[in-house]
Amino acid sequence: MEAFAGFLKGIDNQDHRDRTEEVLRWVADTFPRLEPVIKWNQPMFTDHGTYIIGFSVAKNHLSVAPEQAAMIEFGDDIGAAGFAHTKELVRMPWKKEMDYGLLRKFIEFNIEDKADCKTFWRS
């Protein structure tokens, strides 16, 4: 979590900072082999140098970005959960409970799907 200390300090809203820290800690604890990094001023987790998942903070939500392949794979789950989304990210509102089950699906899918990936992003 040390990698994210500066990022977390920069979140003015204490509730948003606490939630973001909780989510980042959950990922780190649940998937200890993932490396926590900051790239493009965003907290991310990588595996053998390839991107697995990233996060960004907005006024009304925490954005979760698992890459488009995971968004396609779990499109029905995202829709069923009622989250707004784009092709690349899911908007998880601050006022809703964090969907750790969906987060786990994204991460497990990317770890497996990118096991042999030699680049940061999928090609």
TrEMBL record:
<dbReference type="InterPro" id="IPR014922">
    <property type="entry name" value="YdhG-like"/>
</dbReference>
<dbReference type="Pfam" id="PF08818">
    <property type="entry name" value="DUF1801"/>
</dbReference>
<feature type="domain" description="YdhG-like">
    <location>
        <begin position="16"/>
        <end position="111"/>
    </location>
</feature>
<protein>
    <recommendedName>
        <fullName>YdhG-like domain-containing protein</fullName>
    </recommendedName>
</protein>
